[in-house]
Amino acid sequence: MNKVILAGRLVRDPEVRYTQTGKAVASFTLAVNRRFSSSDAQQTADFISIVVWDKLAEVCGNNLVKGSQVLIEGRIQIRSYDAQDGSKRYVTEVIAHEIEFMGSKPINNVQIPPQAKSFGSEVPCDEEIPF
Q1: pTM for the whole structure
Q2: 61: domain CATH number?
Q3: How far apart are CA 80 and CA 25, in angstroms?
Q4: pLDDT at site 35
């Protein structure tokens, strides 16, 4: 069984491309905190390449930005290719099948807590504003 579940934040905005047949593919890097840190108490993260296909790729491109917090379910894939210098390169990535958006949507790379999104009382539209 090849199943991966990850929770983390996007390192940068997703990059959406289209294949020659018109299939959407999005790729981004997810920063996932390690559960146990080293003895010096510094938080450590792994940076994992994520690939998403089809309609879900377009949803990611339209709704996710750097700093977005997501939960991803998918599978690990290892592929290889020949580099320009003739050497063989290997790539490990997660192919996402399901993505859940977590937390609030970042605005200008700043997370706004839900209680801070509204303030003051609403002004009734039939009253005149005194300025």
Answers
A1: 0.73
A2: 2.40.50.140
A3: 18
A4: 75
